[in-house]
Fold this sequence. Notes:
The protein is an alpha+beta fold. The protein has helices spanning 22-27, 70-84, 99-104; strands spanning 29-34, 43-50, 55-61, 89-93, 108-113, 124-130. The strands form 2 sheets. The chain has a 3-stranded antiparallel sheet. A 3-stranded antiparallel sheet has the order 4-6-5. The longest helix has 15 residues, at 70-84. The radius of gyration is 15 Å and the shape is globular. The chain starts with 21 loop residues before the first helix and ends with a strand.
Amino acid sequence: MRGSGAYEGKYAAAVAGYRVGPDYIEAHRAFVAVGGEEHGGRVLGFYSLVLAPPELDLLFVADEAQGRGIGRMLVAHMQSEARAAGLDRLKVVSHVPAEDFYHRVGAVRTGTAFANPPAVPWDRPEFEFRIPSE
């Protein structure tokens, strides 16, 4: 996360102290996309689904893996997991540079999460995924 090009410069403060470790993984549903042998089995992306209140808390794709459909795959998996958990919608507070991605994968803009200095000194777009039943 901290190595992501999306969190360079002024955005670095948002993830400076953020850690996805054992406590986070134990408390939330976290899923990863792992590359095959050609990627050395590295983590190429991940997301975290919070059930109460329903929220996509984190979604990251490694810089070198972007543009290959991994983000779409993670969103499709998230929607399947949300549906299985009985959710019909969930919220996402987007990183500003990711706004276009969320539009492209079907999230609907619902508002703005206002700045929360010092960690996040800028407003962020808020989205909602509507989870259709199968």
